[in-house]
Amino acid sequence: MEKKENEVEIATNMSSGAEKVENIGERADAKAGAAGAVNAAGGKAETKKADRRAEKAKRAQKKGEQKEKAAAKKRVDAALEKERRKAQKEERKAALKAKRQEKKLQMEEKRRAHEAKMAEEKAARLAERRARKELLKNETKAQRIERRQKERAEKIALKKQKREQEYNLKLERRDARLKAREQRLKDRQHRRENRRAPGFGGWLAAVISLGVVTLALTAVVTMGAFDMAEMNAAMSSAYRGTLYELVGIMENADTDLSKVRISASPEQQSRLLTDLLLQARLAESSLERFPIPAEADAGVTTFINRTAAYSQGLLDKLRAGGTLSDADLQKLESLYKTNRQVRDELNRLALAMTDKDMEMFLKSAKENEIGKSFQSLENLTVGDGEEALEEKEQGVAEEEGGITSVRAEELCGEYFSEYGVERADYAGETSSKEVPTYNFFLYDGQGKQIFAQISKKDGALARFEFYEHCTDKNFDLGSAKTIAEEYLASLGYENMSAVWVNENGTLATFHFAYESDGAVFYPDLVKVKVCETKGKAVGLDATAFLKNHRTRGAVSATLTRSEAREKLSDRLNVESSRLTVVPVRGKEVTAYEFLCEYEGERYFVYIDADTGEEVMILSILLSGQGQILL
């Protein structure tokens, strides 16, 4: 029984185990089906992702292709634009080159025409000089005396005519100013009288108006009227002040002449002569303001100009290292004695002259005390001695083959034909050993002054200074250089090269040196000053050229430029170089010029082309006054 029960239990257990096995199998199948479904769903999702990635890659590829196309198009457009700009640049360059070539041809044509004109004028002058020389060679002593007297008479007559014209013009201007001033005062008085009603207020306004007029004219007038008598009194006081000023200037000149004639120190002599030159200029200015007829003060003016010119000549001599000779001291002694007499006469006139004398002089410049005094001054300053000196100067000039002062004055008219010169005053000569000159003061229609020096040897323009006011910059530096070059060409200078410029405000000073065989000759230097307001030359200094220029042999150099460059300091940066001839210790040395830079500063360094020695260094200083060589 027990065995059967156990068998039933075993069967039962076995049945439940089979069920379990079946259930497990079903669950496994269900799980496998679920897993298959999941796998199927995952595979579908992966496919979608792959499709999206492929689509995205396709869009990126398409976008890249479009971007590449745009970049390629941009590169092509840039290349085309570059070619277009290059073509335009070439066109502009060709046009500019053609313009420059045309301008160069025009300048060349102008230069040739000018050279032809200068050659014609030179030939005419040469023919005139030969004819004159032939005439002088064949004329007798009586004819020579007659000719000189005739030339002097013509010169004096011309100067007298010019001075008379100038004096008449001065009187007309003075009368016009006086009339205009009188009319303005009358108009002003009339307006003030009509501005208020009659009564105490109107009377007070008239008194105040007259007081203002009194202060303006520095004369004492009473209330009521103003006429020419009061104006003449005011003018008389002003001219008296001018006379006192002139007396003081001549006293200063007397002191300078007294000291310089006994001085043995070149430094002291230079200081005294400089002050004497200044006093002469001041005296000339004061004399011009004094209402004396031009012919009445001709001798005094000539004496003052001669004193100024002689002082300048002695200053040049001292600056060149020379000393005053016995002849120079004798000339200073003569000037001192004449100046002392002029000073004493002016001082006597200033003490004796009354306002009435001046008023009488304004009406008639002859029959009065002042006219007589200036006639005495003429007798003191103009005499046979000066004429004899002029005769001697002319004779020496003719014998030595130079030019006379009369010819020099004619040349002034030729050199300054475009400057509107209306008057030329001879101011003596400069007795320089290098370039002796005749000196002149020239005046244009506006009273502006030109100081010119003409070489006594060949009539060349050695130096001039035009006292022109230059305020606005209407011409650039390039245009100013062209003006300077054209001016030099008009004077007959050839093969000149601009080597330096110093621009100070609206004045540009160009340094030109003679150039030959590829070398620049610094001893043959000409300076030209150009006013950038007017666009004209206002200064020249050709004394170095006239002194040193000559026919030289070919320029030779032992060292090459590269070998000379190796002699420079390693610190220097070379910007440019050229072969030059420079003055060194009184000798001309062939040297290579190097423009160098070191720590922002620039230098000119000169290396001897034969020995390699560093012979000179010039420092370029930039200042408020422009660029300066030191």
SSE topology:
Elements: H1 2-138, H2 141-195, H3 200-217, H4 228-260, H5 266-289, H6 298-319, H7 326-352, H8 355-363, H9 369-381, H10 384-399, H11 405-415, E1 421-430, E2 437-444, E3 449-455, E4 461-466, H12 477-490, E5 496-504, E6 507-516, E7 519-531, E8 536-541, H13 543-548, H14 561-565, E9 573-584, E10 587-598, E11 601-608, E12 614-623, E13 626-629
Parallel strand pairs: 7-9
Antiparallel strand pairs: 1-2, 2-3, 3-4, 4-8, 5-6, 6-7, 7-8, 9-10, 10-11, 11-12, 12-13
Gist?
The protein has helices at residues 2-138, 141-195, 200-217, 228-260, 266-289, 298-319, 326-352, 355-363, 369-381, 384-399, 405-415, 477-490, 543-548, 561-565; strands at residues 421-430, 437-444, 449-455, 461-466, 496-504, 507-516, 519-531, 536-541, 573-584, 587-598, 601-608, 614-623, 626-629.
Structure description:
Helix content is 62%, strand content 18%. It contains 14 helices and 13 strands. Strands 1, 2, 3, 4, 5, 6, 7, 8, 9, 10, 11, 12 and 13 form a 13-stranded mixed β-sheet that branches. A hairpin with a 6-residue loop joins strand 1 and strand 2 (437-444).
